[in-house]
Amino acid sequence: MSLVASFTICLALFGNVEELRLSQLQQRLSTGKDTAYVVNFWATWCKPCVEELPAFDKLARKYADKPVKVVLVSLDDPAERESKVVPFLKRRGYEFCDAVVLNEPKPHLWIDRVDQSWSGSIPATLFIHNGRRLFGEFQFSAELLEKTFTDFLKERK
Amino acid sequence: MKYILMLVLAVTTMMAQQGTQQGASVGDKAPEFRLKNIDGQYISLDTYKNSKGLVVVFTCNHCPYSVKYEDRIIALAAETAKLGYPLVAINPNDPVKVPEDSYENMKVRAKEKGFTFPYIVDETQEVAKAYGAKRTPHVFILSNTNASWTVQYIGAIDDNANDAEKVESRFVLDAVRSLSSGSALAVTQTKAIGCTIKWKE
After folding, report:
1. Which of A72, A77, A99, A131 is 20 to 30 A away from residue A123, measured at CA?
2. How many Cα atoms are found within 13 Å in the side-chain-facing hemisphere of B57?
3. Tens-place pLDDT, residues B133-191
4. pTM of this prediction?
5. Distance between CA atoms of B176 and B80, rounded to whole angstroms?
6. Cβ contacts from A onto B, under 8 A
7. CA B89, B93, B99 angle in degrees (round to 5)?
8. Whole-number percent of chain B with pLDDT over 70
9. ipTM computed for the complex
């Protein structure tokens, strides 16, 4: 993906935080051969999540011209999408291309569909690349995120 | 090879953070505890030796998910107590990391909200670890048969944190009703979104 193309996509989506069902999100994460996805589950009310967002912002900027997508999945109440989530992201100056609010009211039915090992606490992050997955409930520093991501990509080689 | 080692290291770190191997499962003997209530008295399983069981809720002051559930926990405690299953709330969080969850602030919150149940503090965090509590709120229902305590249910209070009016399944109340009437539980485990427990460094 060229720098120009990704910049254009960002412009188109910025400020437009979509509300998605899990199946729609999963559909989106299965497109784009060779695209690596870094999917962060967070919420505006979650302090450790908010603390690690700059690490994801940094990663997204660093790989802006690569086939890498950093996807922020907010677990805020979908009713607070416009009143809380969008203003929060704007205020912080984040320009994530892909920020969505998950609209799934019954966590006991969908948490396992993201990953069986997920206890349901956040932050949690899922890495996907060509069918391979790595999931964890950690809190990332910028260094640990970068290292985990690059190690994950290299694992196959 | 180097990269594999690095990945193993990263994954190991992650597992350590998650503490995936620890905790009680449904059917296990319930871990003992003896923890200080906000009135200074100590509470243990033995305190409830004459009850049919106990509803243990790991929760805290600061977590917005716990706050969303506060009123529901108060109402739930009244209902489960009537069925022979009193409720205790345990705060497992490190007050150094989250001052709002200090023992003093627990007293303030319990008074403000009019908690009718013990709100006890897990200072060493060993009880949360023994139970395998992962988030707040996180519920464990225990049954008591002649002072033999068994974990019967682990999970969420109900199926809608954001909107109490849209709840369709009241997991904990349903489970206590079943246990109280001697029938098998339809649901023994559920997952929910919540705040991580703030572990000591």
Report:
1. A131
2. 29
3. 999 999 999 999 999 999 999 999 999 998 999 999 999 999 999 999 999 999 999 99
4. 0.87
5. 7
6. 91
7. 110
8. 90
9. 0.81
What string of DSSP letters covers B26-43?
TTSBPPP-EEEETTS-EE
A98/B166 Cα distance (integer angstroms): 29
- Of the partner residues B17, B155, B160, the one whose CB lies closest to the CB of residue A138: B17
The reply to whether residue A77 touches residue B162, judged by beta carbons under 8 angstroms, is yes
- Out of A108, A119, A147, whose CB is closest to B159? A108
DSSP annotation of A85: I
Q: What is d(CA B59, CA B157) in angstroms, rounded to the nearest whole number?
A: 11
Burial letters B149-161, b for 16+ CB under 10 A, else e? bbbbbbbbbbbbb
CA distance to B6, B70, B185, per residue, from B20 (Å): 20, 27, 25
CB-based burial, A139-152: b 16+ in 10 Å, e otherwise = bbeeebbbbbbebb
- Tens digit of pLDDT for each residue in B88-127? 999 999 999 999 999 999 999 999 999 999 999 999 999 9
